[in-house]
Amino acid sequence: MKPHVLVAVNGFTEKHMERIQQVVSGWATLEQINEETSESVYREKIGRSHIVVGWPKAEWLAGSPVRLVQLGSVGYDAFLGSTTQDHASFTLCNASGVMSVAVAEHLIAMMFALTRRISHHIRDMHEHKWRRQFEYEEVFGSTACIVGVGDIGTEIARRLRALGVRTIGVRREIGELHPYMDDMYPISRMNEALAQADHVILILPGNASTEKLFNYNMFASMKNGAYFYNLARGSIVDENVLHAALTSGRLKGAGLDVFEIEPLPQGSPLWELDNVIISPHAGGRSVKEFDRFCQLLLNNLMNYRDGKSFLNQVNYKRES
């Protein structure tokens, strides 16, 4: 029996689906459903599929014939500690690299908007006010600490080095010298790295080991007047402590794309701060996002067909 491929990705165009059909032609069958399909229908489709593409819930895969899950996201938090984890019969691949350029550019945009006071000028523009800010900063010559040096962290570091920024990387294991980092620290010495940085950029995955990692002690380790950016997961940051650091002047500003609760509740005090830029978990969005995702999927479909190793295979058991 030919393997069945189930695609639940609304962002794929007809051209994307035509390319996928060309790759599976002759050795697999293909079906596309709306990613908002009801749970009962989605699960029924999974029960007849061998490859699932999109954002299925982990518990829907238990007991299914699925052998490959290609997520449309970099994060795979929902698969950590799931009931399928210990006895999973499928390979899980994420979308690492698909959103790296977009997130890196989003971070750079936030950095310039904060240091050049662009958000203040936008507010003034709507009120027809011609008003200079007290201080304008340069990123040139500053130091940035990138906490999490994967594909996204690397793309950020590449751009910051070109802007004349000293880059420090933090990750679980240092390994060999990173081409875009001036220095590297293990996560056990993160406080030392944070103390040097004018800009702290959070790009860690969300899991049990990173839950509320950025607490009072971490923010207290930062340089007075530093900027903080979170384009990772809201669960990693204690938002009450972050708010206190921003209102006390400990932090000069923050660029936040992710939050503990999303959408960010209307009553969150973060909305009221004029030294914060908030975006709606949009850092990875790009007109090129689904072109890159489609190409990743095509590569992994061919690898499935040919019995080769998959791209972006994740060891979610090790991460839990």
From TrEMBL:
Keyword NAD in record: yes
The keyword Lipid biosynthesis appears for this protein: no
Keywords per UniProt: NAD, Oxidoreductase
Pfam families: 2-Hacid_dh_C
Domain D-isomer specific 2-hydroxyacid dehydrogenase NAD-binding: from-to ranges: 108-283
A molecular function GO annotation: NAD binding
Name the UniProt record assigns to this protein: D-2-hydroxyacid dehydrogenase
Organism of this sequence: Paenibacillus whitsoniae
